[in-house]
Specification:
Elements: H1 2-13, E1 16-17, H2 22-41, H3 53-67, E2 72-73, H4 78-108, H5 116-141, H6 146-151, E3 159-160, H7 162-165, H8 178-191, E4 198-199, H9 202-230
Antiparallel strand pairs: 1-2, 3-4
Helix pairs in contact: 2-3, 2-5, 3-4, 4-5, 4-9, 5-8, 5-9, 8-9
């Protein structure tokens, strides 16, 4: 019995191929580069806390993704998942606060509303951040995460992809990877609602609702105000 348990633990600790991490690192690194570039180009753009706070969180998330084996996940590296979750939730909070600051500037006539370029750059950064951050949320929490999805630890998905609803059109071992969740984040940002991926769990429905509201507010208010400034 002890030998069987030891063997089972050893098998769980053994690294297994799940999915490459470079798409996550690429997206986070791209967003980090945009944040720094816009901060340099528009130093007076409203920010959440000190100017270094958001780039530091993004850099920490990038390091956490790179620190994990880019093609393997094991029990020994699960602590990195907890670090990633904390950083992702921190970026969600930053996105909500950034949207609130932008709305406040639009209502009270803050500095961001005096320049169309500053307003559009701030709105674009919030919109892109919204898509990226929520795609990370979906990827990290759907069905328990990448390792749990690989091992099929849960009988029902939190997010139902087309390939899962119609398995005859997909390989038998198909599983969603980060690119699928990135597309989900972008399409939800644009459609303000589910498109080809249906939220099944309550947390997924509430998260998608929050993302849709943020995207709608940013696109509606920012573009309307920018048009008024330009005209």
């Amino acid at each position: 019995m002890t030998a069987e348990v030891t063997q089972s633990v050893a098998e769980n600790d053994k690294p297994v191929f799940v999915e490459p991490r470079w798409p996550l690192a690429l997206v986070v690194g791209f967003y980090l580069a945009i944040s720094v570039t816009l901060r340099i180009a528009e130093p007076n753009r409203p920010s959440v806390g000190p100017h270094w706070l958001v780039p530091s969180i993004e850099a920490g998330l990038l390091l956490a993704l790179v620190a994990a084996d880019p093609s393997h996940v094991s029990r020994r590296a699960r602590w990195l998942r907890h670090v990633g979750i904390v950083l992702i939730l921190g970026l969600v909070a930053v996105t909500i606060i950034s949207t609130t600051i932008l709305i406040d500037d639009l209502i009270t006539g803050g500095q961001a509303t005096e320049s169309a370029s500053l307003l559009l750059s701030s709105g674009a950064l919030v919109w892109l951040g919204n898509a990226m951050v929520f795609s990370l949320v979906y990827w990290e929490f759907d069905s328990g995460g990448a390792l749990a999805r690989y091992r099929r630890e849960r009988p029902y998905p939190d997010l139902l992809f087309t390939q899962q609803a119609s398995p005859e059109f997909a390989p038998p071992d198909w599983r969603p990877q980060f690119v699928d969740y990135l597309v989900l984040g972008v399409t939800t940002n644009m459609a303000f609602s589910p498109t080809d991926v249906m939220p099944m769990a309550r947390w997924a429905k509430l998260t998608m609702t929050l993302q849709s509201v943020i995207a709608l507010v940013v696109i509606g208010l920012v573009i309307a105000r920018a048009v008024n400034i330009l005209t």
